[in-house]
Specification:
With 987 residues, the protein is an all-alpha fold. Strands 1-2 form a two-stranded antiparallel ribbon. α3 packs antiparallel against α8, α31 runs antiparallel to α32 and α31 runs parallel beside α33.
């Protein structure tokens, strides 16, 4: 299975130059440092590692420029890859992004993007006639007294005892600590001051709706573009030899880094301490993750991004295992290939334990492709070694360097069943070994993940809804988009119900998000660029040497893995993954260019133009390094600081006019400085920007009611309940408040629930049922659940609704109807225990019908319902019927199925209740052996021993309970000791 060395042969090279060789080494070292640093810096997702990556790339650009300048002065025909055809689309995209940041007159904004104009007009009061927020209320130098329209229901004494917080009590916590609260804080913005200092009118605004996000995204784009052109266009001093060395060192660094990333992911699962890399707690978590992390994540926060990084490295490792790509001599080739094989196994195992379904597909495809290629090469070599009589001499003698051709390039026998079988066997062997390594727990987790994917129709979750809502954004901003990076700022406006408490920072489809942010012009630039690159690669495929085909296949598979993954994720938003993708793509394009006839140009022949371009590149790199160093140290939206005065809150609204939370923060901080009309306008704006948020719309509804606009207020209440049909998100749906609501308010709430139920929103039917139940409207609630059961799409839903309807019938004192409904639930799902339990406890127990109770219990167990639950319910029904023998017998049968501590305690309490003291004591001794840390078990044992006159044993049991729970049982033990002392005194 030997093969030729990587990149043998070459193209016409560059004459060696002693002055420029060190630059080649420095460039290679910097690239390798970037490759190793990026993934272990938490994927580079936080601004400080992202800034370091950007600075490293700009240093590469400066090295590249220095190399070109020195080469221009070197005697001889020093050549440069022909990269200029790829420049125009990149300049077009860069120009578009810069244009998105330029403040424009309102009329120009209206012509270019009517939706952007409408956004500014709706969110910035007075615009475009005057600059927004010029009222003195927004320029207060100190915080105003905040006012709120939120209703507050004081807790009862029992609530306080359960730990419910008291409103208005002094607290160390800050308001708004929720999954979506980070955006409600305010950021110190310099955009408005920048425009004034430049002399531009204050009414001029850019097409980018969130300029700070677009500026950050533009810096990242500049870094990736710079890296691409450096890798593609760098002229190596030693020609083909220097180029081969660069390929080998960089690809080796990528392989080693990938194996280390995978190894960290595997070790982290075994020695998990709740932190990424055992040191870092992500800001989204807030605290170390408790217990064992369910998925391998390595140095990444998101397991899917970890898996995506590995799927790009995996083909390169397979290429090293199947072919001699990373060795420089035949003596080390076998050892290096063995190490690559081990690395491939480590990476494949880590991908499997990441539970990333897209990565599973990508890794499987890579493994199968390379297995088939290897099997094909082995078949070709075997055919060459043992030619058959029918093999023509022409075929034997016209092959290209037989050994090398067979190891790299597909041969004629690829479609043979034997080849496919060999390749499939190699792939299955890899899968089998991996499954053995991950162990039972890993296999179980993978099975569960696969089962969830099949059961949920692909396991995409809420992603399709986000994509559908994002398409509306494309319709409104078709030409220029909302600004690169601006998708999360405007998405809440397009997000349809039901309300989701989590804040979406990405669309989980980078293609769609890119379209929304850059519009048609950005799509044209991107298609133009990748179309040119693809044409160059395809046109040079016949010029690629046979020994280069393995790495070409590996690069193609790595790029295809990223292209596929981007359909369901946002991996290119992760700097480490984007850096690796850019590097691999640049290597593939460079291979195509340098192998193609006419792919090189002489630097001396274009000396003057290259000097101008070099000067511009150096100046631009220096400026970009300065911008990178001034980036905020926190990621969005955590880079937003708390405001203390209205003028600060005003600034962030001007910088983030599409943020509903920014408007709410301004409203809260300005407080009593604002007139009722100004408050109402801000609430209307916030509601328009985030229409599904119940807290914003409820506050808007209450403010409308205070302004005397009752009809509009009720409409907002109905809309708020429709968007979020859950009692916990509306203060007026507290059970103690509902009966005090006005009839019109109750009708509005019912209307919202009904609309949500008709739309199929989760929890809507249960919420409306609970609302009717609180009002005592059992007939409507009963009809609601019966109709829902008839319309249910699955038997499990039908059974649940019939069960709910039966419980309502019980509360309505209609036992006959309840019994019928419970039986209908049983017919829908015979194995569900709920209707059986309700029949036993709610129907047959109160009716003292022990015969029917025993019959339905036997039927339920025969149908597969949970036996311990049914026997426990039968025991309860027997106790209600006054049949202690049946109650005891039922619990003992339940104990056979479930010999748990809880079941033992339940039987012991029944014995105590029936005054069977000796049996109770025996059962409780068993309970203390099962759970020696249970204070309750020792307390009840003490009660049983005391009743059985075993005072010494009772003293020991009470004492143990007092030790385990001193606050609860120490007084009990003291009382027992006093009883004993009194008995001794009386004696």
């Amino acid at each position: 299975m030997g093969g030729a060395r990587q990149f043998e042969g070459g193209h016409r090279g560059y004459p060696a130059s002693g002055r420029t060789k060190p630059l080649d080494r420095i460039l290679t070292v910097v690239v390798i440092i970037l490759v190793g640093f990026a993934p272990f810096a938490i994927g580079g997702v936080y601004p400080w590692p992202a800034a370091l990556i950007q600075i490293g790339v700009y240093v590469l650009v400066i090295i590249w420029v220095a190399k070109i300048v020195l080469a221009a002065e070197t005697p001889g025909a020093v050549s440069l890859p022909r990269i200029f055809p790829l420049v125009p689309p990149v300049l077009m995209l860069a120009g578009l992004l810069i244009f998105q940041l330029i403040p424009l007159p309102p009329r120009v904004v209206r012509v270019l993007s009517s939706s952007t104009y409408e956004l500014y007009a709706k969110t910035l009061p007075g615009w475009p006639r005057i600059a927004p927020y010029l009222d003195k209320a927004y320029y207060a130098g100190s915080p105003a007294t905040a006012i709120t329209s939120e209703s507050v229901l004081l807790p009862t004494v029992q609530d306080i005892q359960r730990g419910v917080p008291v409103p208005f009590a002094k607290s160390e916590s800050r308001r708004g600590d929720s999954p979506r609260s980070a955006e409600s804080t305010v950021k110190r913005s310099h955009n408005f001051v920048w425009k004034l200092s430049r002399g531009l009118p204050a009414t001029w605004y850019p097409l980018a709706i969130a300029p700070s996000l677009t500026r950050t995204a533009l810096l990242r784009f500049a870094a990736y573009a710079g890296l691409f052109f450096v890798i593609v266009g760098y002229p190596f001093a030693e020609g083909a030899e220097g180029e081969r060395r660069f390929y080998r060192l960089v690809l080796t660094a990528i392989v080693i880094t990938g194996v280390l990333v995978a190894a960290v992911g595997l070790v982290e699962r075994v020695y998990w301490n709740g932190k990424i890399l055992w040191l870092f707690v992500p800001m989204d978590w807030g605290a170390p993750f408790p217990g064992t992390f369910p998925r391998a994540t390595g140095p990444y926060v998101n397991p899917d991004h970890f898996a995506n990084y590995l799927t790009m490295v995996f083909p390169l490792v397979l290429a090293g295992a199947f072919y001699e790509l990373y060795s420089t001599s035949s003596r080390t080739s076998s050892a290096i290939r063995l190490l690559c094989a081990a690395g491939a196994l480590i990476i494949f195992t880590a991908i499997l334990l990441s539970l990333s379904r897209a990565a599973w597909i990508e890794a499987t495809a890579s493994a199968m492709v390379f297995s088939l290629l290897w099997a094909n090469s082995e078949w070709a070599k075997w055919k060459d070694k043992y030619p058959s009589k029918t093999t023509s001499s022409r075929r034997r003698h016209t092959r290209l360097d037989g050994e090398r051709y067979g190891t790299a390039r597909p041969a004629a026998g690829l479609s043979k069943p034997a080849i496919a079988g060999i390749g499939l066997a190699a792939f299955l062997l890899l899968v089998l070994i991996t499954l053995l390594i991950v162990g039972p727990q890993g296999r179980t987790q993978s099975d569960v993940r696969l089962g969830q994917t099949i059961a949920n129709g692909g396991g995409l979750g809420i992603r399709p809804i986000v994509w559908r809502d994002s398409l509306d954004m494309v319709r409104d901003y078709p030409l220029f988009g909302v600004g690169l990076g601006g998708w999360p700022e405007i998405f809440p406006h397009y997000q349809t119900g039901p309300w989701n408490e989590y804040y979406f920072r990405e669309a989980h489809n980078d293609y769609l998000q890119y379209i929304t942010e850059t519009g048609l012009l950005g799509v044209v630039a991107l298609i133009w660029f990748f179309g040119l690159a693809a044409r160059k690669c395809l046109s040079s495929r016949h010029s690629i040497l046979p020994t280069d085909w393995p790495v070409v296949f590996a690069l193609a598979l790595a790029l295809a893995a990223m292209a596929f993954h981007e359909l369901v994720d946002f991996c290119l938003h992760i700097p480490a993954n984007a850096l690796l993708f850019t590097l691999l793509f640049a290597l593939a394009v460079r291979l195509a260019i340098v192998r193609k006839e006419g792919g090189l140009i002489t630097i001396v022949a274009h000396r003057s133009r290259l000097r101008v371009a070099a000067g511009l590149a150096v100046v631009g790199s220096a400026m970009l390094i300065g911008f990178a160093l001034t980036q905020n140290g926190l990621a969005y939206p955590y880079d937003i600081a708390w405001a203390s005065i209205p003028v600060q809150a005003r600034e962030v609204v001007i910088e983030h006019p599409a943020s509903a939370r920014a408007h709410m923060s301004l409203l809260e901080i300005a407080g009593t400085n604002l007139t009722p009309g100004m408050r109402l306008d801000e609430l209307a704006t916030a509601t328009w920007l985030d229409p599904t948020d119940p807290s914003i719309r409820d506050m808007y509804a209450e403010t409308l009611a205070q302004a005397g606009k009752e009809k509009e207020s009720l409409n907002e209440v109905a809309e708020s309940v429709f968007n979020s049909p859950a009692s916990g998100t509306h203060s007026y749906l507290d059970a103690r408040l509902i009966s005090w609501l006005l009839p019109a308010e109750q009708r509005a709430i019912s209307k919202g629930f009904e609309q949500a139920a008709a739309a199929g929103y989760p929890g809507a039917i249960g919420g409306l049922g609970a609302f009717d139940d609180t009002l005592g409207d059992f007939s409507d609630e009963l009809q609601l659940y019966i109709e829902a059961a008839r319309r249910a799409r699955t038997n499990s839903e039908r059974a649940a609704y019939f069960t709910d309807a039966g419980e309502v019938a019980i509360r309505a004192v209609n036992e006959n109807l309840a019994e019928t409904l419970f039986h209908q639930a049983i017919r829908a799902v015979p194995s569900s225990p709920e209707p059986y339990v309700n029949l036993l406890v709610q129907i047959y127990g109160p009716a003292k019908n022990t015969g029917a109770a025993q019959s339905i219990t036997i039927e339920g167990i025969r149908n597969g319902a949970d036996a311990p639950r049914l026997y426990t319910a039968l025991s309860t029904a027997a106790q209600m019927s006054g049949n202690p023998e049946l109650a005891e017998s039922a619990l003992l049968r339940a104990l056979r199925y479930d010999p748990s501590f809880g079941m033992i305690m339940q039987i012991a309490q029944l014995y105590l209740q029936n005054n069977k003291i000796e049996r109770a004591a025996a059962m409780l001794r068993n309970a203390t052996e099962v759970n020696p840390a249970s204070a309750d078990a020792y307390y009840l044992l003490g009660v049983a021993e005391e009743k059985d006159y075993q005072y010494s044993d009772a003293d020991e049991a009470y004492a143990r309970a007092a030790i385990l729970a001193p606050r609860q049982f120490r007084p009990v033990y003291s009382a027992f000791r006093r009883r004993m002392d009194s008995a001794k005194g009386a004696g």
